[in-house]
Amino acid sequence: MTKLTLCACAAAACVAIGLSPIGPAQAGTLENLERERAIFIDTLLDPDVTPMERIEKVRISKRRLVDLERMVLRDKSLTGRNTPTVRRAFENYDLTFLVNASTERNVSAIDAWLAEIGITTQSLMSAKIGRR
Amino acid sequence: MLAVPANASAKSSAADPSWRPEVSERLVKLPAAYLKKSLDRDFAQSELGVAIEDLGDEIGFKSQTLSDLQGAIGKSDGEVRIELRHQFLAEKRAYLELVSNKHALRRKHVVAKKRVLEALIQRLVQDELAMTPARQKLIETQVNASQRFEATMSAVDVKLLATSAAPNSRYSREYGKNLTAMETLIRAIDDHPMNAQPVIEGQVVTKGDYVRQLIADTDAEIALIQQGEMILGYMAKLIALDATKLSEQVADAERIDSDVTDRTSLTSAVDIFIAK
């Protein structure tokens, strides 16, 4: 192989590296996760859906969340990205990676979420109905 | 070209050849072991590199001429010998000019190289300084999160399978396959000779240490060039002395060959005043 051909190969390899996902990882994995989690929680709390609809929606959303949580944890572009969003996300592992954390702790996602934001059965039971 | 980290400027003319490498992002990311080769190759292709190469050839030819002349002087005599010695001195002076020019260009090269290495080390230090305590803390948190995730992933997968929200998505399936391929590639990259860690005196060193060593090498080269310039100065002094000596010898020879007697002394004029 001539020197020129070698140079051309090297240049082509450089272009390929530039275009491949090895470079900066796909942007927005954390944003996608947060959007999906918001939809998931909204579904859990939505009073307008029937129990069957809720189960089906949660099943689909949970499957997506499992993948998205793993994508975020494996996203190298987030490593050391010192923004408030990234900081908050990793400081609150149990809230950000809700499905993973709740399954790990053997509790349902809604229970894990409510516990993380400070609403427990005890606090609900001791709550009083009153005029605001 | 893959190896060339910076482009030499084409602004300079042939009379003032230059090499102006710049610290590109690619140079910063280049494996340390490849850094020096890459800089050397970039320089060799620059106007300055070509000019030094050409001067080296010229000096080689000039040395040969000097050797030939020296040999010829040994075999000659009379006026031819003086003429050859004169030519020898002129060629020696021309040789010194060439070597002096080469030293000036070499100095230019080393100074440019040192400048780019110092800029490079500055960039590397900036990257280190960018590691603020807050960022350090975030990275630690992320590492902990990742470790927690890896430690519980299998158990979580089993539980999710049991609850039908199985992680058996396309992403999960493909991720495993891709991970295996990536690990193979990463191993190949780690074992690749061009990715070898730099070594100084048998010790594997960091990129920063390696660049600092290169800077020290350029300092040493500058000092040696300065010493070379002093040697050139002494050579020039010797040529001047040789020229003076030759000039004296030629003048003496002319005086000896001359028919004119010395009539300036009074004793030589005594005969004129004596009546015969």
TL;DR?
With 132 residues, chain A is mostly helical. In chain A, 68% of the residues lie in helices and 0% in strands.
Q: Which helices and strands appear, and what pairs or packs with what?
A:
The complex is a heterodimer of chains A (132) and B (276).
Chain A: H1 3-19, H2 29-45, H3 51-74, H4 84-91, H5 93-96, H6 98-104, H7 109-116, H8 121-125
Helix pairs in contact in A: 2-3, 6-7
Chain B: H1 25-29, H2 32-44, H3 47-75, H4 78-129, H5 133-162, H6 170-191, E1 199-200, E2 203-204, H7 207-257, H8 270-273
Antiparallel strand pairs in B: 1-2
Helix pairs in contact in B: 3-4, 4-7
What does this protein structure show overall?
The complex is a heterodimer of chains A (132) and B (276). Chain A has 132 residues and is mostly helical. Helix content of chain A is 68%, strand content 0%. Chain A has 8 helices and no strands. Chain A is globular, with a radius of gyration of 22 Å. In chain B, helix 4 packs antiparallel against helix 7. The longest helix of chain B has 52 residues. Chain B has one domain. Chain B is mainly α. At the A-B interface, helix 1, helix 3, helix 4 and helix 6 of A face helix 5 and helix 6 of B.
